[in-house]
Amino acid sequence: MFSEKKTNTKKRFSEQQIIGFLKEAEAGMPVKELCRKHGFSDASFYTWRAKFAGMEVSDAPRLKDLESENARLKKLPAEAVLGMEALKVVVKGKP
């Protein structure tokens, strides 16, 4: 009557680990076996392969830096628009 309980906890892997997994697959380890061994889905593997293909472990920190810089730059236009809207409110309020 005992049933095996599945957990839905997500395991997070660093970029360096992911690149290592991809290198294992490139070296010939079957994807299903690799996924089972490290505890992630084949869908995750293929998503990672699309994102990190051809990268070396030393490239991972640079990718992370570029992603943060990209996110910061995307926020700039929105902040500028908010600033302009605030100025319009102030200008309209003056007699």
TrEMBL record:
- Hey, what's the signal peptide range on this chain? none
In terms of superkingdom, the source organism counts as Bacteria
Q: Which GO terms describe its molecular function?
A: DNA binding; transposase activity
Q: Which InterPro entries match?
A: Homeodomain-like_sf, Transposase_8, Transposase_8_domain
Q: Which GO terms describe its biological process?
A: DNA transposition
The identity of this protein, by name, is Transposase
